[in-house]
Specification:
mainly alpha, Rossmann fold, Tyrosyl-Transfer RNA Synthetase, 2 domains, two-stranded parallel sheet
């Protein structure tokens, strides 16, 4: 039997996970566990790049994210689930990579420009925020993965990692494979205000939300912006609620809603109610598992510790090669 290829990815513990995280990454990770050797980490040092002035929630957020992961179907029997800050080798490798990474590579990073423009309430003019792609590169290539599963909007993150790996190899010898970008399908959904779903925008539906909270958020969702009255025909093609229907509602009902919306046979309030019920039902298995892990906090801590120890052993092997290559 051939050895499985290794993949790696991570998430920042900036708060509870939402549907965008589930559909954009987590659901794909769960599927990939059977086909790859998976390393998934909680990037708590990365949380400091934008939330350096409010670090108190990070420890609790780490546990909440791990609970979300386990509830969605990740399992320590199939994947190495670990915490970035518990593997100190990441920090050593990050320091070494900063010595060879040109500043213009970081300044052209599209996410850097986007976040600077969006998060105007925070001072992001820090070295840590500018240099986070270098830390991200260290996080990835220290495990020598075959690839990194990402959505198309995150592909530039992997590309700069490939460039940094290539530059390291140029100076010090062929130590690192360049990780492939494994593009994963991401269904089209937006936040309740039609912007990208994000904790920062306060527009997210969280995996930990109760049925009551889900119903309340769905009731506030923006539908077809051109449909002003109940008697006006709508256009499902531009309606965010309908995008959710296509994911969480019975296909026959989706077809009926499409036809009824276009002929004003159904109003937005009723349409939202139907979608909310489908979403609540779909998330019920996750809620049930979440309740179990919330009642077993020591088990969750043990999973994080054991996964971090496993990851550290792999990172230590790489760092021995790195030190030998740099001759330091």
């Amino acid at each position: 039997m051939s050895q499985k290829k290794r993949i790696l990815s991570g998430m920042r513990p900036t708060g509870p996970l939402h549907l965008g995280n589930l559909l954009g990454a987590l659901a794909n990770w769960v599927k990939m566990q059977d086909d790859y050797e998976c390393f998934f980490f909680i990037a708590d040092w990365h949380a400091l790049t934008s939330d350096y002035d409010n670090t108190e929630p990070i420890i609790n957020n780490r546990k909440e994210i791990m609970i979300d992961w386990l509830s969605a179907g990740l399992t320590p029997e199939k994947s190495t689930l670990f915490v970035q800050s518990q593997v100190k080798e990441h920090a050593e490798f990050f320091l070494l990579l900063t010595m060879i990474t040109p500043v213009p590579w970081l300044e052209r990073n599209p996410t850097y420009k986007e976040q600077i423009g969006e998060l105007t309430n925070k001072d992001l003019s820090t070295f840590g925020f500018l240099g986070y792609p270098v830390l991200q590169a260290a996080d990835i290539i220290i495990y020598k993965p075959y690839g990194v599963p990402v959505g198309v909007d995150q592909a530039p993150h992997v590309e700069i990692t490939r460039e940094i790996a290539r530059r390291f190899n140029h100076f010090y010898g062929n130590v690192f494979p360049e990780p492939a970008t494994i593009l994963t399908e991401t269904p089209k959904i937006l936040g309740i205000d039609r912007r990208k779903m994000s904790k920062s925008y306060n527009n997210a539906i969280f995996l930990s939300d109760s049925p009551k909270e889900i119903s309340a958020k769905v009731s506030r969702m923006i539908t077809d912006p051109q449909r002003m009255r109940r008697s006006d025909p709508g256009n499902p093609d531009v309606c965010n609620v309908f995008d959710f229907h296509k994911l969480y509602t019975d296909p026959q009902m989706v077809k009926e809603i499409d036809e009824q919306c276009r002929t004003a046979g159904i109003g937005c309030v009723e349409c939202k109610q139907k979608m909310a019920q489908g979403l609540i039902t779909a998330l019920e298995p996750i809620r049930e598992k979440r309740a179990y892990y919330e009642s077993q906090p020591d088990l969750v801590d043990d999973i994080m510790t054991e996964g971090s120890n496993r990851a550290r052993r792999a990172a230590q092997e790489t760092m021995e090669e790195v030190r030998a290559a740099i001759k330091i």
